[in-house]
Amino acid sequence: MTVQPTGPGLAERSVLAELTGLLAEVTGEDERWAAGVTPASRLEGDLRLESVELAALSDLLARTYGEQVDVAAFVAELDIDQIIGLTVGDLVRYVVARRPVTSQAEPGGRAETGATAGPDRTAGTGGTAGPGGSAGPGGSAGPGGTRVGADR
Length: 152
Known about the structure:
alpha/beta; 4-stranded parallel β-sheet; 6 helices; 41% helix
């Protein structure tokens, strides 16, 4: 088994890459546009994100990282000046802070023993998996997930 380096920098870079792709998806923009997205990019002022696009992004982030990542609720707690100044980096930090803390698989990844995996992910023995995921013996699977083991 290969152990991947962990830490806030890696987590933030990973979430930034995923978030940039999701932003391009909800806005219909191309890779060239996405290449210009940085943590300092303001959602409204720089990226011109509309409210329907923010709602779509919120939904995609919840499906990717789990229901604990509720961007709509996060934004609802902000005042108007904070909303206007909201950056991609602010969202990255929000997502990183809300992800499960136990050996979580990155998007598209696999979590090992005792770990938590998000939607459409696989968790090992004793792990939990989100919607569409599968969990090993002793684990639990979310809606649409498959629990793998002798007692299934």
